[in-house]
């Protein structure tokens, strides 16, 4: 068994593309091996900013041989009346590269067994350049030299070794070899790899930690060692810290950790400003004391060794202090103006050229939030706080601090609002209206903040849709899918039952929104986010489709609940029987839709009476108000009466009045069932 190495040497890849590119290389390699029937033991990926690589162990000497049965024309087309092979049969043989003498006749057809011999591994692996390397896709591309070929970054070298044998191929004018590159500054330009087995150790000796997992663990260990030695608390397990760790890992090949400091006077600035300056702008890790208070120190990673580390530390400190000086200036300067001053500037700030200003967006948001607050029965204090928050919640966009650090919008709004005398509820809502800031980020916790967040995002979606700026495919330049996901998650988290259809209809009419498209697509857009979130949660696709069917009220919370309820009960022992009973009713009821009242006097057997009694006290509106779980439980109790009904009752009775009455009864049940969705979409297992 052999070992194969493929290394793609590149100019520095953007940090955010390294990991995804490594994963893509692995997936494409697996597909390549499968298509060529070449078996291997382990497939191990490697990556640094300057290279993507994969090592295959226990590579078979040849691919697996293959025997395939190919079906040709039917016998009556393959042979004439004298038993001679026809043109159709001969053409089939020729197409398969076979002789008609190899034909077999079975099941009324002509068959050929095609044998494909195994191919040597080195011959197969020579195709990996065209079929894997050249086929890689990226979100960012570059062209170089006179090539029309696009790649994440220019390819500078290629290594392809099967044990110690070079596997020859070219990508553009780059030919494979056994020479890689070490660390850009700590190693010589060309490093020979004598054998694929020696890849990791060869690069280690050239100051490159090529295994991304090993490199990340080394970074984590070095950072923790410095923090512990100084008695600092370093949190590396938060989402933000994990993101930074991933980014840093993807910009270094030989990590060396160090600590730096800054003047304590800057601790007067809000922590978020300091952390943003360190983490977002300088890729520094902040540290705290045991009480969680920020300390005037930071940790960082150098792409190199410990030589001249003092100069590196001094340089990093100088750059950070320059940023903190700016932050300190803006922090004090911003407080010399008032919220009213900033709002005057907001009135001139364009939201979108087709939609209007940010101020107009705020006014619409305020009106929408007020209507929702009334529907949700907010108390007077909440209404007052919501009104004030909606009047000013974008004021910080015009502050110097947010102009310099746009990541702090909302965060500085909260700080400044408190400094300007706004109450905590209003200040918190200003920060929370951006939440969630990512697909899995925290949703707003306060009632006022959560409602402002929903209204702000909903106005954006409605007005962008009205302007014809609708996401298509993967293109979503205004983040409307993220906004819709945030709305769904917030409504579900708060258990706020709001029918979006009439709410948006009233809103569009009152605000005079002129739409280029049918705004019912907004509701469909929101429901698509419910679908995505449900599927991401691992719920079966047929269950999700069922729960999204028969939507009469665009109540995101209730629709989400019924998907969850159907999913939870799908593992019940009696689920199959319940769904089969209810869908049998549904399939019959659609044949004769009626709202006629059921007449018990026309019942002809006990099962009709029993089913009628079982449904008599069931009111759809009441059951839906009590929740999808209660509706499912109530409908599940109908399974046995329905089964007995169909055992004893012929729905299509000869007496038309009896038949109509039976269809009326089935329609009653169907309307109840529709409250859970379209159950006919559920695949019974």
UniProtKB/TrEMBL annotation:
Claim: Cytoplasm is one of the keywords in the record: yes
Biological-process GO terms, alphabetical: glycyl-tRNA aminoacylation
Enzyme Commission code(s) on record: 6.1.1.14
Transmembrane segments: none
Catalytic activity: tRNA(Gly) + glycine + ATP = glycyl-tRNA(Gly) + AMP + diphosphate
Keyword Aminoacyl-tRNA synthetase among UniProt keywords: yes
GO molecular function, one term: ATP binding
Subcellular location: Cytoplasm
Source organism superkingdom: Bacteria
SUPFAM superfamilies recorded: HD-domain/PDEase-like
Binding partners and assembly: Tetramer of two alpha and two beta subunits.
PANTHER family: GLYCINE--TRNA LIGASE, CHLOROPLASTIC_MITOCHONDRIAL 2 (PTHR30075:SF2), GLYCYL-TRNA SYNTHETASE (PTHR30075)
Protein name as annotated: Glycine--tRNA ligase beta subunit
Protein source organism: Leuconostoc pseudomesenteroides
């Amino acid at each position: 068994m052999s070992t194969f190495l493929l290394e793609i040497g590149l100019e520095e890849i953007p940090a955010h593309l390294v990991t995804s590119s490594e994963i893509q290389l692995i997936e494409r390699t697996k597909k390549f091996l499968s298509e060529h029937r070449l078996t291997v033991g382990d497939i191990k990926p490697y990556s640094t900013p300057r290279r993507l690589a994969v090592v295959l162990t226990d590579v078979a000497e040849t691919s697996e041989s293959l025997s395939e049965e190919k079906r040709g024309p039917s016998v009556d087309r393959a042979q004439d009346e004298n038993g001679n092979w026809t043109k159709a049969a001969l053409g089939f043989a020729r197409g398969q590269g076979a002789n008609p003498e190899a034909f077999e006749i079975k099941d009324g057809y002509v068959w050929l067994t095609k044998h494909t011999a195994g191919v040597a591994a080195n011959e197969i692996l020579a195709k990996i350049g065209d079929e894997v390397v050249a086929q890689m896709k990226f979100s960012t591309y570059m062209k170089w030299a006179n090539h029309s070929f696009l790649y994440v970054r220019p390819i500078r070298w290629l290594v392809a070794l099967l044990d110690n044998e070079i596997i020859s191929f070219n990508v553009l004018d780059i030919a494979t070899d056994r020479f890689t590159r070490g660390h850009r500054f700590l190693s010589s330009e060309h490093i020979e790899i004598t054998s694929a087995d020696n890849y990791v150790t060869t690069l280690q000796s050239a100051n490159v930690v090529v295994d991304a997992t090993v490199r990340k663990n080394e970074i984590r260990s070095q950072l923790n060692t410095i923090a512990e030695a100084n008695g600092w608390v370093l949190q590396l397990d938060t989402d933000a810290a994990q993101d930074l760790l991933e980014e840093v890992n993807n910009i270094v090949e030989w990590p060396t950790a160090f600590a730096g400091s800054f003047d304590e006077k800057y601790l007067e600035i809000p922590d978020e400003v300091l952390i943003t300056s360190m983490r977002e702008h300088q890729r520094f890790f902040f540290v705290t004391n045991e009480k969680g208070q920020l300390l005037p120190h930071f940790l960082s990673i150098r792409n190199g060794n410990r030589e001249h580390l003092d100069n590196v530390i001094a340089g990093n400190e100088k750059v950070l202090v320059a940023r903190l000086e700016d932050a300190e200036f803006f922090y004090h300067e911003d407080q010399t103006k008032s919220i009213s001053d900033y709002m005057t500037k907001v009135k001139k700030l364009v939201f979108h050229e087709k939609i209007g200003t940010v101020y107009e967006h705020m006014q619409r948001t305020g009106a929408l939030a007020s209507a929702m607050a009334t529907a949700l029965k907010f108390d007077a204090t909440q209404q007052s706080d919501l009104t004030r928050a909606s009047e000013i919640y974008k004021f910080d966009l015009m502050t110097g601090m947010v102009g310099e650090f746009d990541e702090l919008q909302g965060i500085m709004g909260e700080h400044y609002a408190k400094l300007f005398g706004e109450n905590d509820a209003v200040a918190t809502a200003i920060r929370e209206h951006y939440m969630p800031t990512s697909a899995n980020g925290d949703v707003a916790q306060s009632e006022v903040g959560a409602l402002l967040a929903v209204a702000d995002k909903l106005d954006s979606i409605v007005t962008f849709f009205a302007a014809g700026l609708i996401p298509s495919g993967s293109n979503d330049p205004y983040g409307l899918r993220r906004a819709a996901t945030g709305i769904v998650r917030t409504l579900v988290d708060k258990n706020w039952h709001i029918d979006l259809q009439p709410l948006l209809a009233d809103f569009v009419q009152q605000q005079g929104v002129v739409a280029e498209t049918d705004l019912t697509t907004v509701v469909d857009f929101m429901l698509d986010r419910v679908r995505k979130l449900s599927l991401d949660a691992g719920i079966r696709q047929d269950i999700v489709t069922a729960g999204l069917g028969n939507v009469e009220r665009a109540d995101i919370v209730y629709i989400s609940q019924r998907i969850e309820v159907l999913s939870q009960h799908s593992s019940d022992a009696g689920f199959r029987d319940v769904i089969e009973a209810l869908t049998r009713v549904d399939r019959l009821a659609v044949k004769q839709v009626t709202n006629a009242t059921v007449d018990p006097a026309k019942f002809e057997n006990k099962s009709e009476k029993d089913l009628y009694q079982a449904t008599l006290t069931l009111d759809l509106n009441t059951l839906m108000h009590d929740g999808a779980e209660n509706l499912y439980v109530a409908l599940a109790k109908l399974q046995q009466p329905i089964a007995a009904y169909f055992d004893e009752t012929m729905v299509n009775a000869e007496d038309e009045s009896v038949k109509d009455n039976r269809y009326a009864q089935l329609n009653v049940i169907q309307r109840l069932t529709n409250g859970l969705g379209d159950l006919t979409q559920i695949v019974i297992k």
